[in-house]
Write a sequence for this structure.
């Protein structure tokens, strides 16, 4: 008997869990590429309708604001991807009957779901970057693409949406088939991204509104992360952490209530 066998199985940590979740997401992406390609095609189709249809109706007015439209659409695809992936993933686990397995892991359901959400955000970034490149190619537009600033600002912006996804996942665990109601929120992201946060300061505490404003300034005006006022960056971090923490708490409370009611595995 070797020393490793004598010492028994090694205890897995959060590092091993994160690596396994990222590897699972990579396998799903590689083995089922048609779904990811379909998402890119549908997103570009709607952007094409928006761009060419808007140019026919609004002409020069749309051309003058095309940079802002591209940045807003990029952030919208990121937001929808982050929100729907976490809420739909939990809904799928409920339907497949595999939700209780996650609850029985030594890590607990909520940390597993949080890491799965982070992995899906990474995949969403890759897909949205392809969509952004295609939009720039279609419209012939040039943007300031400082990768570090874009990744930080966009990541903090969609963390608040990830919190909404967790809250939606918790509601799904409790009430099961509520997808139609939860999908309505995706259209609300358009309102939040286009909210006039500069003119109406209190809008900055809503998800996406302040992040959209900073991302516009970064990608259109070329403002780097360290050139933003510290108060703006601090507010972006506070909104991201606040909504993510709130959504995480709602998710944990919902799963605890589902276990008390005995409806966690029911469908």
């Amino acid at each position: 008997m070797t020393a490793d066998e004598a010492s028994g199985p090694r205890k897995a940590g959060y590092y091993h869990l994160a690596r396994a979740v990222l590897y699972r997401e990579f396998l799903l992406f590689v083995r089922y590429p048609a779904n990811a390609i379909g998402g890119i095609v549908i997103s570009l189709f709607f952007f094409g309708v928006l761009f060419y249809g808007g140019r026919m109706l609004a002409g020069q007015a749309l051309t003058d604001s095309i940079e802002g439209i591209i940045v807003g659409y990029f952030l919208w695809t990121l937001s929808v991807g982050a929100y729907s992936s976490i809420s739909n993933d939990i809904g799928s686990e409920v339907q497949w009957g595999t939700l209780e397995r996650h609850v029985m892991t030594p890590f607990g359901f909520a940390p597993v779901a949080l890491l799965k959400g982070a992995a899906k955000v990474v995949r969403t970034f890759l897909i949205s970057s392809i969509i952004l490149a295609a939009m720039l190619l279609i419209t012939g537009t040039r943007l300031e693409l400082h990768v570090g600033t874009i990744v930080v600002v966009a990541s903090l912006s969609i963390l608040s949406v990830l919190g909404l996804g967790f809250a939606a996942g918790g509601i799904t665990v409790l009430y099961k088939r509520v997808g139609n109601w939860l999908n309505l929120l995706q259209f609300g992201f358009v309102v939040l991204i286009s909210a006039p946060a500069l003119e109406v300061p209190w809008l900055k505490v809503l998800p996406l509104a302040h992040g959209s404003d900073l991302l516009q300034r970064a990608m259109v005006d070329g403002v780097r992360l360290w050139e933003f006022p510290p108060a703006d960056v601090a507010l972006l971090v506070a909104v991201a952490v606040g909504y993510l923490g709130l959504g995480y708490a709602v998710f944990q409370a919902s799963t605890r209530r589902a276990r008390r009611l005995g409806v966690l595995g029911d469908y």
About this structure: The chain has a mean pLDDT of 80. Residues 22 and 107 are 16 Å apart (CA to CA).
